[in-house]
């Protein structure tokens, strides 16, 4: 009986209540902002996002029960499922096209981007591969095998095309490779190769509207009613909030309806407009706390696989946040990347919480629990 009591005590002690509290706080904060940004559809958006929050919490419980080592043993099947999802979405009639990219499954009642689920799968499968490769990672033959996995996934996403998500995947892979102690010469060489490939991408990969987004990032006034419109309106919303904002539900863009995609891509601009710089900083602090907590769990994981999982989750959250906030304040081109926990999207919130669930899984298994 005493042993069971100790086992239960250890089980409770291994739960990271801090990360759970931060995650729920961010999701609830996001729902409040969506209720303000959603306009006439805010009630439906709040219901969907709240339902996604509860689904995500259930998902966290389920994914925490399964030992991450067990999930890693299924990595071949998980990777095959990821490839299948990204291939199916490219087929007309199966995949749905939005904003020039065929990257959605529309099931009528619900629609979702398979790339969101693939992020979770990639963290598991790439962590397993890095752990198996171990110290042999810096051998060219082994490195080529390791890189094959993210390359296949990124090529499939480029065919949609979804450049924003590809960047997130690349950064996730780089962060995990860094934690696996990949030689700096390979990392620097990789960034140099990407820089050299930029002219090729500009002339042969990017479509005219994508080039316009990049050009008008620096000169939005060149096309104030076209490709520069979103940049101008987002900057205006962010700047108009000043220090304390116009007040919740009192943002000017709520009434003039000039800021597009207020509840999704540009939710951070709404936060700054209504809650000011204080609200904007609060969002950054909250997201940073979640990311740092994930890294802390990874550094203290029982094995390298746990470290890589947490690094992948932290990188996913960090670069999505960096890219979205940079987009809203006019530092990066508009890519359609959502802000984790805050942007509207049931499947996005649920899968983001699943990613946090992976980190909680690692934390829960710091040490063996005996009942």
Describe this structure in words.
By secondary structure, the protein is mostly helical. Helices cover 70% and strands 3% of the residues. The chain has 15 helices and three strands. It has a three-stranded antiparallel beta sheet. Helix 2 packs antiparallel against helix 15 (346-364), helix 5 (75-88) runs antiparallel to helix 6 (114-133) and helix 6 packs antiparallel against helix 7. It starts with a helix and ends in a 7-residue tail after the last helix. 44% of the residues are buried. The mean pLDDT is 84.
Question: Summed up, what is this model?
Answer:
With 371 residues, this protein is mainly α.
List the topology elements:
Blueprint lengths: L1 H12 L3 H21 L4 H24 L2 H6 L1 H14 L6 E4 L2 E6 L4 E2 L1 H20 L6 H19 L4 H17 L4 H22 L2 H11 L10 H12 L11 H5 L10 H33 L4 H25 L17 H19 L7
Antiparallel strand pairs: 1-2, 2-3
Protein name: Rod shape-determining protein RodA
Pfam families: FTSW_RODA_SPOVE
Subcellular location: Membrane
